[in-house]
Design brief:
alpha/beta; binds L-homoserine; Rossmann fold; 14 helices; Alpha-Beta Plaits; 3 domains; six-stranded parallel beta sheet; Dihydrodipicolinate Reductase, domain 2
């Protein structure tokens, strides 16, 4: 019986999940493929730290060359993370005509198009299902099951850590820092959680999904990003009064004017399907001209769920190896498209102003909004004390640039003491 051999680079959360799933389901996988699929080498820097007994025929190695020069290995799986060394390894594997699977969104959001071109040039496959939304099979869905659709919009909850934090703050009234601490203890957050809470992790994932969905070379730097660090309980409570819940959303939308790419905290109606995505779960809402609306939901991280996506890539490539058809299909395919500046995006907005508690203040605020052609949908006023009140305002849809202009004019109005926050509202 034919055997396709695999090497893993990395044996942490995802590497072990991949290995364990391949072991657990070995008979089933071999049966489904019609040939044997085996991991034979695992590259790590410090083998002694792994307290596992590897099955016969599998060994830890500490030099990459023993993988690159091993002609019996046709698939290399990069699950180390980081950009510099991972890029060197992936590039060297592709140059050595080895097929590559990676879960590394940081690397792909920066170098994905280049690595894809290199793979095609070398006649091998590059696959990366696990790089976005962990265990949710979304990448192959976009370039395979939905390939006959013109995708018009992607809206996703793409980061488990921030969704966990916002859920805890909204449902249990926990503070931002307490919620973050719990996310770290549960292992959802990256070692340095900056990439999670500042929206960078979600932006990398959006860049990968949008590149496939809209056939344009999209890099991390093309995405407008805001994180969740300034969201506080007050806004969450006002949002709830208006019928909204808050989520960190990745949004890619194609319009006649171009493609807009944003990661930002936004209010969505509590009736929207994404509002029910709680805790560390992820989801992607896809709009296409054939499928209409579809939502994909599941575990965005974790050992076995992410391993499941890696294994699916390994199996797809193994089939191509067995049929000698690697390098035939590339998920990234490009044509030129304009990017649409974030300032032009139209949307409703929520604004919280701290104002003087005196007669005529509401009229002054309303006149500034009118000067900027911003129409108001709802207003809530709460008197904080004798001298101060809070105004929570929901606007009708308008370009973001109008909102930036009105904030500037509020900053020059003596009766507005502070602009507490401004949050975008997604249409229903
Ligand atoms: P871990 O930190 O748990 O594991 C990294 C592994 O790589 C370790 O076994 C480490 O072993 C090995 N390694 C070898 N060389 C290097 C090197 N130069 N630098 C760093 N590590 C090295 O990472 P994860 O398994 O969590 O993540 C792996 C990849 O999967 C990342 O790209 C991540 O973004 C992605 N991912 C992770 C998800 C998750 O749920 N954790 C979900 C989706 C994607 P040693 O130290 O012994 O060398
Ligand atoms: N830190 C990431 C998250 C892990 O919270 O979603 C999965 O990419």
């Amino acid at each position: 019986m034919k055997t396709v051999n695999v090497a893993l680079l990395g044996f942490g959360t995802v590497g072990q999940g991949t290995f364990n799933l391949l072991q657990m389901n070995q008979d089933l996988i071999d049966h489904r493929l019609g040939f044997r699929l085996r991991v034979i080498k695992i590259y790590v820097r410090t083998p002694e730290k792994y307290k596992v007994t590897l099955p016969k025929g599998v060994s830890f190695v500490t030099d990459m060359d023993s993988i690159l020069n091993d002609d019996s290995i046709s698939i290399v799986v990069e699950v180390m993370g980081g950009v510099t060394f991972a890029r060197e390894c992936v590039e060297a594997a592709l140059q050595a005509k080895k097929n590559v699977v990676t879960a590394n969104k940081d690397l792909l959001a920066k170098e994905g198009p280049y690595l894809q071109d290199l793979a095609t040039e070398r006649g091998v496959d590059l696959r990366f299902e696990a790089s976005v939304l962990g265990g949710i099979p979304i990448i192959r869905t976009l370039y395979d099951s939905l390939y006959g659709n013109r995708i018009t919009e992607l809206i996703g909850i793409m980061n488990g850590t921030t969704n966990f934090i916002l859920t805890k703050m909204s449902e249990e009234g926990l503070s931002y820092s307490e919620s973050l601490k719990q996310a770290q203890e549960l292992g959802y957050a990256e070692a340095d959680p900056t990439a999670d809470v500042e929206g960078l992790d979600a932006a990398r994932k959006l860049a990968i999904l949008a590149s496939i969905s809209f056939n344009r070379r999209i890099f991390f730097d093309d995405v407008y990003v805001e994180g969740i660090t300034t969201i506080d309980q007050t806004d969450i409570r006002y949002g709830q009064e208006f019928g909204y819940t808050i989520k960190l959303l990745g949004i890619a939308k194609e319009t006649k004017k171009g493609l807009s790419l944003n990661v930002l905290p936004a209010f969505i109606s509590t009736k929207h399907p994404l509002a029910s995505v709680r805790g560390a779960y992820n989801a992607l809402y896809v709009k296409g001209n054939g499928i209409d609306d579809a939502m994909f939901y599941g575990q965005g991280a974790g050992s076995l769920p992410t391993g499941s996506s890696v294994v699916s890539d390994i199996m797809e490539i193994a089939r191509n190896v067995a049929h000698e058809s690697t390098g035939m299909f590339k998920p990234f395919f490009y044509s030129e498209k304009n990017l649409y500046a974030p300032g032009k995006i139209e949307s409703s907005y929520y604004m919280r102003l701290i104002v003087e508690n005196s007669t005529g203040v509401l009229a002054k605020v309303a006149s500034k909004l009118a000067e900027q052609r911003i129409s108001v949908q709802s207003v809530l006023q709460r008197n904080e004390d004798e001298n101060t009140a809070t105004l929570a305002i929901v606007t009708a849809p308008c370009p973001r640039s109008y909102i930036l202009n009105v904030i500037d004019s509020f900053n020059h109005l003596r009766s507005v003491r502070a602009v507490g926050s401004v949050i975008r509202i997604m249409p229903e």
